[in-house]
């Protein structure tokens, strides 16, 4: 792959990019770079500005202000050249009205000027890979939402590209199909493809992305690797346990004064204690020792690892990240343990 | 392969509604074989210009061919409308083309539909048109020009409508409604210069009148200076509406 001197090895280079719709600032002065052959993720709740950013970078929407280079090409003046080298899977459905699955892939390849033989080969390959055999002759309008999504993603791989934009590509897919997709993307990245990926599903971002930009209300709050985000913004580790006896004031007192426990909170509803600590391996023997002394019985215990979801929520809730301010947060246990799988699509 | 060939082929394959296309063909045939036939006993043959006297059935047969043109024009709007509804509009705009290439591909596809279906109607109507046809280089040229300008005008018109009207319902209602206005105030069913003054003045502003008169002039060698003026007006109107359609299209918000 050619390396552009002006933009180094960046596939995407964005500086202070903004988009305003009337009074509404959808994207607010974002800056970032995507390296070649990297999976770069935009993670953010609905309305964060992910789609608007993609629409600008794919030349669909003119930016209100700011600069961007895509594959070393200027976004404003070299739109067509950019479009020749990118692929896009939109968040919204896109399909051809009166065609069946195979024909619609074939026509899509044709408008991309892929030679006939090559189209044939790739269609067969993709249909097999994405397990679309049983509906390859079906009319596109008759497909289920998930099947249509598979077609839409598979179709994009008919043509060659250097950079692929995927806007929430796995919406509506079952877990198996989703995993198959993500693995397929990973293979393509190994072969040199660069992927710009948006999602509101945290596990997905963590599984696929080399780096993640957390986006909220049009701004990029933080950019880092999933591991670093967890380390920097996840709440500290905690030991969670329950007692057969339920609540015990004495234990709370004893454990709270222990040096290895940063904070101890009791969730009244479930009767679960959460001892925040950086050294769970020391808290556990201490806990058993104290329980023994107070004649209490521990019914369950486990170490809660910090998750990307914790990091994400603390970033989105608290705006810009400030490493230390989050480590000792978790005033109440309920707030520190958000409902799993939040940020479901509102529509 | 050329970019327009690829896009036009795709538009024709993906966005044609075969059922409405079928009825667009059947409709004019009714005018020729049922209405024209029924009325030709009532209406005495009359002079359509340049001393050419033809029967009402012949008169209407020519009108029915331009009717095909306006009908096909609406296809341009439908193509765009399908692409917008199905998300292909954005997808194509992020593809390796320009907006202009995309809109021209719609117009070109419409021209192909328009000219092909009018030729088909023409062929089917040949037994009726029969010996009255006048064949010369000029007649072929005028006939072709009428079909080309007519399709361009109504194709661009439908495109502009499709851009302006967001929902399919309003596009369908408004395009059907304007279709009837264009149709019944044109010279498709009656010669404009023999109509009452009010209708006559509306008819003489109607591009469908120009296209129809021009087509008759080609088919029956009835060219007059007045029809030359109509040709000029039709050309100007077509350029104007085409420009409007392209400009409107380029400003579509995504
Ligand atoms: N065409 C538009 N006109 C007005 N507001 C828009 C338009 N497109 C997006 N927005 C607004 O911009 C914000 C960001 O939207 P979007 O980029 O779609 O977010 P995301 O993809 O992260 O869910 C939202 O508040 C949305 O309502
Ligand atoms: Mg979105």
Would you mind describing this structure in some detail?
The complex is a heterodimer of chains A (347) and B (254). In chain A, helix 3 crosses helix 4 (116-129) and helix 8 (226-233) packs across helix 11 (308-318). The model of chain A is unreliable at 1-7 and 321-347 (pLDDT under 50). In chain A, a hairpin with a 4-residue loop joins strand 12 and strand 13. Chain A is built from 13 helices and 14 strands. In chain A, the strands form three sheets. Chain A has a six-stranded mixed beta sheet with strand order 6-7-8-3-9-10, with helices on both faces. A four-stranded antiparallel beta sheet of chain A has the order 2-1-4-5, with helices on one face. With 347 residues, chain A is an alpha/beta fold. Chain B is mostly helical. Chain B is elongated. Chain B has a two-stranded antiparallel sheet with strand order 1-2. The mean pLDDT of chain B is 89. Chain B has helices at residues 3-14, 18-39, 56-85, 88-93, 99-124, 126-129, 137-164, 168-184, 197-203, 207-220, 225-250; strands spanning 46-47, 53-54. The longest helix of chain B has 30 residues, at 56-85. Chain B contains eleven helices and two strands, in the order ααββααααααααα. Chain B has one domain (2-249). In chain B, a hairpin with a 5-residue loop joins strand 1 (46-47) and strand 2. In chain B, helix 3 packs antiparallel against helix 8 (168-184) and helix 7 (137-164) runs parallel beside helix 11 (225-250). Chain A binds chain B through residues 55, 58-61, 79-80, 83-84, 86, 88, 90, 92-99, 103-104, 107, 110-113, and chain B through 1, 3, 6-7, 9-10, 13-18, 82, 86-88, 90-98, 254. The structure holds adenosine-5'-diphosphate (ADP) and magnesium ion.
